[in-house]
Design brief:
Blueprint lengths: L3 H15 L7 H4 L43 H13 L7 E5 L4 E5 L5 E6 L2 E2 L28 E4 L1 E4 L5 E6 L4 E5 L9 H6 L7 E3 L3 E3 L1 H13 L4 E4 L6 H4 L6 H8 L4 H11 L2
Helix pairs in contact: 7-8
Amino acid sequence: MRKSLPIVLAGLAALVATQYLPQPDPAEQAGSTPAPQSQVLPAEPSPVLPGPAEPPAEAPPRHADFDGELPSAEARQLADWVLDSGDHEGRPFAIVDKVDARVFVFDAEGRLQGAAPALLGLAPGDDSVPGIGERPVPDILPHERTTPAGRFVAERGRNAQGEDIVWVDYDAAISMHRVRPIDPRERRLERLASPTPSDNRISYGCINLPVEFYEGVIDPLIGASHGIVYVLPETLPLQAVFTGYEPREAQRHAALAETEEEAAFWRRVMAR
C-alpha cells in the first residue's frame, strides 16, 4: 500500500497537466485554410490642381491701310478705331473728312479702295436743321446748308430728278452723288480740282464727288453693300459724335506701336 501511493499521486498530476495544455483548432484538424487577414492599402496621392489660368494676350490693334494717302490725324484715328472695334459690322466703309474736304473708301478689311476730294455743305456745322429734308431746296438759307456729322448706313436711291444717288441721311436729304455743274457761277468742277479744301464748301449739304470716283468706288462698294459712312465733325470732338469711341484707343495704339514714328503719331493724337 505505501508503494502504490506515489504511483497514484503521479497519475493525478499527469491528469491535471493535460487540462491546461493548448487545444488544437478544430478548423486546422479538418485541414481548412485560416481566414486571411485584412490588408491596409496605401492612400492614393492627392490630385495636383492647376493654378489660375493666365489671361489671354491682348491682340495688337488693327490699322486701316491708307495705301500711301496722307489723311488728317482725325481721319486716321477714326478709320483705325472703326476697323479695330468692328463698328463697321464687316461692311465696306467711308470716311468723310469735312475739314480736309476729302473722302476715303475702304473694303471690309480696312484696305483703301479709293480717295477723292469732295464738295460739302456751304455752312460749317455738325447738325442738320430739323425738318430740312422736307423743305424745297431754294428755301434753304445759306447758314442752314450743313453736312451733318455722324455714322450713317448708306442706301442706293434716286433724287427728285431721277438720278441715281447714295443716300447718307435720308431724313435730312443728304446724299453722295456725282458733281453737277449746273450753275457755271459756282465753278464746282474747278473747286474739286483745286489743291486746297478752302473753296470746297458750296453745296446745300450733299457730298459732291468726281464722276469716276462715284461710279467706280462709291456706288459699287458703299451703295451696293449698305456700307457705313462716317462723316467727321468739324466743331465737336469725335467722342461726342460716335457712340463707343473712346480717346484711350489712341493710348493703346501708342503703347502697341511697332515703330517710334507710329508711337509719336498716336501721342500727337492724344494731345489734341
